[in-house]
Write a structure and sequence with these properties.
5-stranded parallel β-sheet, 3-stranded mixed β-sheet, 18 helices, 12% strand
C-alpha cells in the first residue's frame, strides 16, 4: 500500500499525524528545491506551526530541473514521513505541510501562478550554492542566464521565475513577498537580494525598484544532518509505518533554524517548533558554516582519500579526528572572534557527537558534491582571517589539499559545476603549479583568498605528499 491522504488511517499507530485539517489549508509558501533537506527542516517547522493553530501556510514545492521528487510526492498527495534516528531511538512522524509539487520545466506557468497567488506570502529556497548562478567572485553570472533573458523566453532559474511572478504581483497591485534563502551561504538573504536586484535591473529596472521597496530577504542559518535515503532505509521505514513511502526522509534529532526578523508580510509562527527570530544572524551562520560545514567538507575529502564511506567512520579514524578537532576549535572557531553568546568548545563537542551518530549513516560522497561552490565560505574566509592575524591553519590547508586532489578526477567522477574547468587547470598546471593556478594572485579563487608565500609552501607540500600516495 502506498502512502496517501486516503490511506492515513492505515498507518501504524506509533506514527505521529499532522495536528490539523490539511484540506482546510491554503498554500502560503512557495519553496524552490524541495529535496530531502527541506522536507526534514522547513517543512517540519511549518507543520509544527499549523499544528499549533496557524492557518494557510501549506507549501507548494518547486523542482527546477528533475521531476523525481514530484513523482515521489504527487501520488502521495504531498505526504511523507520524517524519521529521526539517534543512538538507540527512532521517532517517525507524518508531515502534511506540502500540498503539491510542481516541476518547473513541465509547467512553468503553474510556478508563476503560485508566486503571483494572493495566498502566497513567502518564497523559500534550498537550491544549493550553484542554484544562485554566481561567478567565482560571487557576482551574478549573466552569461549562464542568457537563454532566459531574451524577450518572451521561458524562465529557467529562480531569478526568471521570481521576475515573472513579481511583475504579475506589481501589475495586480498586490503586496511584495518575503524571500527566505535557506542555503549555506554567508549572509544568504543579502546575497539573494543583491543577485536578484542585478537580474531585475537587467530585465526591468522599474520592477527592481518595486522589489527593493516591497519585498524583504531575511538571512537565515539552517542546521540538520539529512543523509540520502537508501533502499534499505525505505524498507525499514515501510516496516515501521506499515506502507510504502517513496518520499521518506531520515535525519538526526537535532535541528536549528535562526532567522533574521525582517518580513514583508505575514509569516508562520516557526518559533513554535524552536526557530529563533533574531536581529542579526551573522555570528550564528559563520559558526555553522566554518565549524560544522567546514568540518564536514574536511571529513569528506580526507575521509574519501582514506577509503571511508560515512561520516561516522571518518570521525572515528584516529588519524582524522585530531585534524577535525584542530580545524573546529583552533582554526574555524578562533576566526569567529569573541562572542559571549558562543561557546566554541561546547559547540565543537556537540558537533563531534553528532558526527559520531552511527544510527544516521551520512555518505561522504554526498557532502563532497559541489565543493568549488562551498569552500570559499567554509575554508577560504577563515583562512584569510587567521593568516592575516598570524595564526597558522595546518588542518584547513590539509583539507584544502585533499579537495584539490579530489577535483583532479583521477579516481572518481567529480560532481561539481566546475569539474571540467578544474580538470583542465590540473592538466595544464600539473602538481607543481596547481596551487598558484587556483590561489595565486591571478588564480581562480584569488578574489576569495590569495595564498601567501608561507602558506603556498605548506599547501604545496600537502599536495605533493597526497599526490605521491
Amino acid at each position: 500500500m502506498r502512502l496517501s491522504q486516503e490511506n492515513i488511517a492505515a498507518l501504524n499507530v506509533d506514527v505521529e499525524r499532522p495536528g490539523y485539517d490539511r484540506a482546510a489549508q491554503a498554500c502560503g509558501i512557495v519553496h524552490f528545491g524541495i529535496g530531502a533537506f527541506h522536507r526534514a527542516h522547513q517543512a517540519v517547522y511549518t507543520d509544527d506551526a499549523m499544528a499549533a493553530g496557524d492557518r494557510d501556510w501549506g507549501i507548494t514545492g518547486v523542482s527546477l530541473r528533475s521531476g523525481d521528487v514530484a513523482d515521489q510526492m504527487e501520488p502521495q498527495d504531498g505526504l511523507f514521513t520524517v524519521s529521526e534516528r539517534g543512538s538507540g531511538s527512532q521517532r517517525t512522524r507524518l508531515i502534511g505541510a506540502v500540498q503539491r509539487v510542481l516541476v518547473a520545466p513541465r509547467d512553468p506557468a503553474a510556478v508563476v501562478a503560485a508566486l503571483a497567488s494572493s495566498s502566497t506570502h513567502i518564497v523559500s529556497f534550498t537550491v544549493t550554492e550553484k542554484g544562485y548562478c554566481r561567478t567565482p567572485a560571487g557576482q551574478l553570472d549573466l552569461a549562464m542566464l542568457e537563454p532566459e533573458l531574451a524577450d518572451g523566453a521561458t524562465p529557467r532559474s529562480i531569478y526568471g521565475f521570481l521576475a515573472t511572478g513579481l511583475a504579475q504581483r506589481r501589475a495586480a497591485g498586490m503586496p511584495g513577498l518575503t524571500l527566505v534563502s535557506c542555503d549555506n551561504l554567508a549572509e544568504n538573504g543579502a546575497v539573494l537580494s543583491v543577485l536578484l536586484n542585478a537580474y531585475l535591473d537587467r530585465v526591468d529596472p522599474g520592477l527592481a525598484a518595486w522589489f527593493r521597496r516591497e519585498c524583504a530577504c531575511p538571512s537565515t542559518m539552517v542546521d540538520r544532518i539529512v543523509p540520502a535515503v537508501t533502499d534499505a532505509d525505505r524498507q525499514q521505514i515501510a516496516d515501521t509505518i506499515g506502507m510504502e513511502d517513496a518520499a521518506a526522509v531520515i535525519t538526526e534529532p537535532f535541528r536549528q533554524w535562526v532567522i533574521e526578523d525582517r518580513f514583508a508580510g505575514p509569516r508562520p509562527r516557526w518559533e513554535v517548533g524552536g526557530a529563533q527570530l533574531v536581529a542579526d544572524v551573522r555570528q550564528h551562520e559563520a559558526a555553522k558554516l566554518r565549524m560544522l560545514n567546514g568540518a564536514h567538507s574536511a571529513l569528506a575529502y580526507l575521509g574519501l582519500a582514506q577509503g571511508h564511506d560515512f561520516v561516522h567512520q571518518a570521525i572515528a579514524d584516529p588519524t582524522l579526528r585530531p585534524l577535525i578537532e584542530q580545524l573546529m576549535r583552533h582554526e574555524a572557531g578562533v576566526s569567529l572572534g569573541s562572542d559571549p553568546g558562543l561557546d566554541i568548545d561546547a559547540y565543537a563537542a556537540q558537533l563531534l557527537a553528532r558526527f559520531a551518530n552511527s544510527a544516521l549513516p551520512h555518505r561522504l560522497a554526498q557532502i563532497a558534491v559541489d565543493g568549488s561552490q562551498k569552500i570559499p565560505q567554509r575554508w577560504l574566509e577563515p583562512l584569510a582571517i587567521n593568516l592575516a592575524a598570524g595564526r597558522a591553519c595546518p588542518a584547513t590547508l590539509k583539507a584544502l589539499a585533499a579537495w584539490m586532489l579530489h577535483v583532479r578526477g583521477d579516481a572518481r567522477v567529480v560532481d561539481d559545476p566546475m569539474a571540467v574547468q578544474l580538470a583542465a587547470l590540473w592538466q595544464s598546471a600539473g602538481t607543481a603549479g596547481i596551487v598558484t593556478t587556483l590561489f595565486g594572485e591571478q588564480g581562480l579563487f584569488a578574489d576569495r583568498w590569495t595564498v601567501t608565500d608561507q602558506s603556498r609552501a605548506l599547501l604545496q607540500a600537502e599536495v605533493d605528499q597526497m599526490a605521491a600516495v
